[in-house]
Amino acid sequence: MLRVAPIKNTLLDGATITEQLYTTPKDCEDFFESLEKPTEVKATPRSTFIRAGVLTTVLGSAYMEYGNTKVLAIVAPPRELMRSSARRMNMGVLNCYVNFAAFASGELETVPEREKHLGGMLTKALEPLVCRNEFLNFQLDVRVLILDDDGCLLSTAINCCGVALVECGISTYDIITASTACIYKNLVFVNPSAKVEELLGQHRGADSAQMEEHGLLMNASMDTFEQLAQCQQCGYMKPETFVKLLDYTLEINKSLRQLIRRVLTDRVKEQHVLDKKEQEAERQEDERLAGIIARLKEQGLHEFIQSNIKEDPYTKK
Amino acid sequence: METDTTDQSKDDILICLPGERLCRVEDNVVLGEGTYEQGGYIYASKSGIVSIVESEEKYQMVSVNKPGFHLTIPATGDVVTARVLVTTPKFAKCAIFCVRNVLLESSYRGLLRKEDVRETEKDRVDIYKSFKPGDIILARVINQMEQSFMLSTAESELGVVIAYASDARKNRIPMVPIGWGEMQCPQTTIKEPRKVAKVLPESTIKSEP
């Protein structure tokens, strides 16, 4: 079943173009000059840190640092659909909620809209990933908290949610990885920082007749079946440029995938060891109880109770 | 596309991640938990340890066991423990709080229809003579409807396990079964009709044919 959700023509993270009416092409030029420009295009991810199971109070959680972007994702176990929200669906329902920490973003006015927009995009990206046929009449809530914003928000959130879902034990068809690339004034920015994304949002065409390429591409891929879970583009790009950026993002996705695989494998090993310890403890407890029962049989009930009472420190007083 | 790499650690365990190809679909291979089939191959859908169980009937069950927490949702054929919430002449509403031997985090809705209370004399069943709100019952999941799980107690091992007499709620002494259709309060000696379960260890309950 194909559902088409209306998506406003906004930039990827919801910053609308109409907000700053008085920006001129000159301002853009100045802003662009102040930026650090890449000398060559390196299709590698930023320095990344991922950890699964950071919170002990929820079942599936993951924390990810992608450069300076810091994101925390939480997956709660499936809940039953309430009657009021029951849609006649033959699939489970996925809900994603994104929240900015109060200190994450300087502009507070646009935050609610960005949160809503990111949530919608995240839902779309994760829907092909989760085996939704296993959660008929259930809804799965994924919550994302953005602690620090330095660009690539959506792709980082997707990566983080992917890890959290696996950590929670939700069936997924594959591991999802996502990355962002953008082009501005013929310069390709891989993993654009918040500054670059802001610049793209403020872009005003110069008065020259020839239109310059400017745009952002976010791509989430699942490599086992070579599928794209979500591919989002905004701005103006020629098809050749689009393909070029797509290749860059796929390249980054591949290396991120290696990293995520390693993190998850380590996590499984870690939990396996914990499980073994727990089993060992359980076995010892069983042995202890068996010993008590054996003693009970030997001593007889009355004597046994007497002997136990003497050991109790509270009854001594 | 990368090959189906599987880490072989010292303990001789096979770790897999979602989307990893496990083996080809064959006649004697059965898909277990945490796997799915796609294009003639079996893939993992969870991270965990691969286990291949050989059954005596010459088929192999491939499944992925996730260490640590794993998610439980009542499936068709599972024996569940539920609390009766509301009874009406046609059905009883229950809250499922335990599946097999796993305690659930949150309870799920269950529905027990009049026709599924017992195997014989289905037309002479009265819900109010079988269950009372507050009873703890053992039941088998037979179906998943739009809003809730359909339950059935049409087996002698299924039915009321713990019940309290209607008038002696305060001292909370569970009634003692005195037959397949009656329970008695040991304090007040009041007898009340119930669909009593013959409680056995779960392993001895025969699985659904």
UniProtKB/TrEMBL annotation, chain A:
User: Which Gene3D superfamilies does the record associate with it?
Assistant: GHMP Kinase, N-terminal domain
A single GO BP term for this record reads: U4 snRNA 3'-end processing
Q: Which InterPro entries match?
A: ExoRNase_PH_dom1, ExoRNase_PH_dom2_sf, PNPase/RNase_PH_dom_sf, Ribosomal_Su5_D2-typ_SF, RNase_PH
Could you tell me the superkingdom of the organism this chain comes from? Eukaryota
Q: Name one GO molecular function term.
A: RNA binding
Coiled-coil residue windows: none
Instruction: Specify where it is mainly localized.
Output: cytoplasm
Q: Which family does it belong to?
A: Belongs to the RNase PH family.
This one is known as: Mtr3
Q: Which organism is it from?
A: Drosophila busckii (Fruit fly)
From TrEMBL, chain B:
- What processes in GO biological process is this protein linked to? RNA processing
InterPro entries in UniProt = Csl4 (IPR039771), EXOSC1_C (IPR019495), Exosome_cplx_N_dom (IPR025721), NA-bd_OB-fold (IPR012340)
CDD domains annotated for this entry?
S1_CSL4 (cd05791)
* MF terms in GO: RNA binding
Q: Which UniProt keywords apply?
A: Cytoplasm, Exosome
Q: What's a single GO CC term here?
A: cytoplasm
PANTHER family per UniProt:
3'-5' EXORIBONUCLEASE CSL4-RELATED (PTHR12686), EXOSOME COMPLEX COMPONENT CSL4 (PTHR12686:SF8)
Protein name in UniProt = Csl4
